[in-house]
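Sequence and structure are kept together here, with a separate record for every protein. An example record follows, reproduced without changes.
>
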Amino acid sequence: SEHIVFDTMGTTVHATLCDVTADTAARYEKDLVKVFEQWNRVFSRFREDSELMMVNRAAGHWVDVSALFFDVFVYCLRLARQTNGAFDP
């Protein structure tokens, strides 16, 4: 197995890949880092340029969002309903 470790979004990500070569693991690591970088650009509460902060600044007004933001937002609202508010996005 190959281990991937990197810091992002205020935490350390640890991933273990089983039955892969070191070359394959390196490619997966690049892809995984890219995914977390994208999520950080979209959902960070600590980046003024994130999409979440843009939405927060536009409170009370319609705003265009990316498909990723919309899909995650809809999913979070569904979880909130299913848990009677125990999950609160």
The chain is about 50% helix and 15% strand.
